[in-house]
User: What shape does this take?
Amino acid sequence: MIRFLEFLVNHWVLSGLWLAAAAALLAYLNSKTGTSLSPNQTVALVNKEEGVVLDVRERKDFEKGHIVEAINIPLAKLSERIVELEKHKDKPIIVVCQHGQSAGEAVKLLHTSGYAKAGKMAGGLAEWQAQNLPVVK
Assistant: This one.
């Protein structure tokens, strides 16, 4: 530990650059993902605020199982099909993918298109199923 502190003191510029790079990476990842919601928060938004679940997985994956009344628009086609969500613009939109990794990109696109209440479900459909919540096939 003493050698580590000695390194930091002797190479303060290098240490500062490393910290700046780490902070920039965290800021980038945070801006890409948007608000994360748990499956329970998702259920509450759907029930209390008429939230809409947007499933961005491919059609074949969607047909294997999805959340009740979810709208399926694959991520690759979201920019061209975003007008289908126009009637839900003032409602919370919860984006769901398989594991919660690609939903952040969809949320970012929705935010830039004026869907201010868009967020992603943390853990995706895998987390939904892990909590034994209902899935429609």
In short: Strands lie at 36-37, 52-55, 71-72, 93-96, 118-121. Residues 12-33 form the longest helix (22 residues). The chain has a mean pLDDT of 91.
